[in-house]
Amino acid sequence: MKNQYSFSETISTGVALIFTKLFYNKARLIRRPIYIRGKSSLSYSAGFTTGHFCRFDLPGGEKKTLTIGENCQIGDNVHIAAYESVVIGNNVLMASKIYISDTSHGDYSGSNQSLPSGPPNSRPLITKKVKIGDNVWIGENVCILSGVTIGDGCIIGANSVVTKDIPQNCIATGSPAKVIKIFNKEKEMWLK
């Protein structure tokens, strides 16, 4: 099925393509508006595509804290916060309104926990790496929280909140996300 763009969308996409080739030469298409705080911390590969209104919060500086693999397609309104490390593999497809963060305000486990009496913005930033494997499909409105690894070949269902690791070749849904199917290589089928 071929997309039929309106005249204004065709013009908007043309402007975005020129902008992309001028400022993000390896990318396929960066749609505007896009907000990248700390652009020097972004590393992306060929074929990178974004939708409208994406936001990347990065610390800036020499360290690459957001690494995006080849042929990644990110939908509209995707927000990624990467202060330590968010690594997104090759051929990842993301729907819209996704939130991915390696950061939280405060520590709520162990012996030195943050207190609820202080303002959240004054609590220390705690970071834990996030890794998303190759060939992953992430549905609409998904949240992926700090410290999570999603294996190669996974599908994360719409509206899921991923709080723990998801092994490769699984379908996970829910809040918190739980594995509901695993791909069986011998039978070449998704099984419960």
Name the descriptors:
22 strands; 1 helix; UDP N-Acetylglucosamine Acyltransferase, domain 1; 6-stranded parallel β-sheet
What does this structure look like?
Strand 21 and strand 22 form a beta hairpin. By secondary structure, the protein is mainly beta. It contains 1 helix and 22 strands. A 9-stranded mixed β-sheet has the order 1-4-7-10-15-18-20-21-22. Helices cover 9% and strands 33% of the residues. The protein is globular and about 55 Å long. The chain has a single domain, classed as 3 Solenoid (UDP N-Acetylglucosamine Acyltransferase, domain 1), CATH 2.160.10.10.
CATH topology: UDP N-Acetylglucosamine Acyltransferase, domain 1
Uncertain stretches of 5 or more adjacent residues: none
Count of distinct structural domains:
1
The total strand number stands at 22
Total helix count?
Answer: 1
Proportion of beta-strand residues: 25-35%
Second CATH tier, the architecture: 3 Solenoid
Radius of gyration: 18 Å
The rounded distance between the terminal residues' Cα atoms is: 31 Å
Taken in chain order, the helices and strands follow as HEEEEEEEEEEEEEEEEEEEEEE
CATH class: Mainly Beta
Helix content range of the residues, please?
under 10%
Tell me about the largest β-sheet.
9 strands, mixed
Look at the helices and sheets and give the structural class. Answer: mainly beta
The CATH superfamily turns out to be: Hexapeptide repeat proteins
What spatial form do the alpha-carbon principal axes imply? globular
| Strands in their spatial order, largest beta sheet | 1-4-7-10-15-18-20-21-22
Mean pLDDT: 94
